[in-house]
Fold each of these.
Amino acid sequence: MRKTPVTPVQVTGTVLTTRRVDAYHALTVVAPGIAERFRPGHFVAVAVGGPTTSMLTRRVFSVHDVKPDYGGTVEFVFAVRGPGTAWLAERRARDPLDLVGPLGRPFPLPRDPVTCVLVGAGHGSATLFTVADALQGRGCRVDFVLGGDSADRVFGALRARRMGETTTLTTEDGSLGMRGRVTDVLPGVIADVRADAVYACGPLETLRGVTAVAVEFDIPVQVAVEERMACGIGVCMTCVLPVIGDDGVTRMVRSCVEGPVFRGERVRFDDVGTIPFDALGAPGGGTRNVG
Ligand SMILES: Cc1cc2nc3c(=O)[nH]c(=O)nc-3n(C[C@H](O)[C@H](O)[C@H](O)COP(=O)(O)OP(=O)(O)OC[C@H]3O[C@@H](n4cnc5c(N)ncnc54)[C@H](O)[C@@H]3O)c2cc1C
Ligand code: FES
């Protein structure tokens, strides 16, 4: 059963530490209120550019870690991509940082102590460690499959090796682990560990592939999508994607509030970026009675 979202808060946090982790930057921010509400899979929306900026929209990041220190800290990990992340990469300890969170729906966790494979690609791996922690707290076995374009873009390999029963790494250029993608090795890992469930975060293409593998093995798969988000709080509709509901009807749902975590087989990956003609309320699709 899906849990009710927690109420997010806006916090003027303080940067506690900054560090480089290969191709990524990690920012730990004192953000009481967010840390205590956090559950694995939540994300935060960060104001970038300072008080006079033209960068009006917040940038959203998965939470990599939370700690009780200093009343509650959250850490997120990012690669520099455009002006917002470039500004964040210049933040230093004691700088103020405006955050809203925790946002989104977290990963549902199994009731029983089952075997779970956690699949991450690029910075998508960052969100998996709090999931792993929660799963292990329930007695679940955790195995990792992490990948990236190159060795410096595989996030969290060392931590995965410490936490996971097994860790399989892939890089597209072969500089670390097996050459290829996470989806190339996933069938072997699922079979070897006799996985009961899969959790994944990464680019849409990866999530599509991971879902296809899990469906082939007939095991549940939870994916955290990263659709472009302008508001992160359900107002602007930039983040919608077609998802099949319990009633079999496709709806355009907001991945910031109804997601970012979805059952993989419910996401119509082939139709993301469009409004499928059979989606509820689609232009020209007519109306239907859904009870
Ligand atoms: C739920 C979620 C979790 C994310 N977690 C992480 C993370 O842990 N680490 C990380 O490096 N990145 C993450 N991203 C992507 C991150 O939000 C973008 O890289 C960032 O917003 C880019 O901002 P920019 O100004 O540097 O780049 P620009 O490309 O200049 O951004 C311009 C605008 O597009 C939006 N945008 C651009 N790329 C993305 C994207 N991929 N997803 C969503 N919005 C985007 C920005 O919010 C901004 O409004 C996540 C995205 C989502 C939706
Ligand atoms: S990002 Fe605005 S509704 Fe989802």
Amino acid sequence: MSVSLTLTVNGVKRAIELDDPRMTLLDLLRERLDLTGAKKGCDRGQCGACTVIVQGRRINSCLALAISHDGADVLTIEGVAQGDRLHPVQRAFLAHDGLQCGFCTPGQIMSAIGLIQEGQTGGDPERVREGMSGNLCRCGAYQGITEAVLEAEKAQGAADFKEVA
Ligand code: FES
Ligand code: FES
């Protein structure tokens, strides 16, 4: 039985026919839309490599049925830079060496963007570590990742302040 759904992915509306209604959002992104930035690490919700932002909230796309997000806005790592201009979180990861092999990095960055939007860390490294604990890094780049999130959060706060002033 085929089903159809519509998603807005990185600002582009996509109409998709699914032969298998059990297809996950991760498989749809990678196999149907050629957006391979979100990675399949564990495929069971334990590593965070597949993190994307759906309707403003970060989720593990390997655990999400694509059909259950019909009509949703989806942001993936491919959609965060503006042309050649990297997103502030991407720049902070580079500045703080928040990566080694890079396999976990798209998920880390999407999770960091979500965490900063949630506004719950208050510049506290411990809370950043807790908020990012669903994203595993086999290379152990956690120190740089935490520093990058803190810096990006600070930059975001300064930008917000400027907008209000
Ligand atoms: S691939 Fe989704 S959490 Fe690991
Ligand atoms: S940078 Fe290699 S798994 Fe995180």
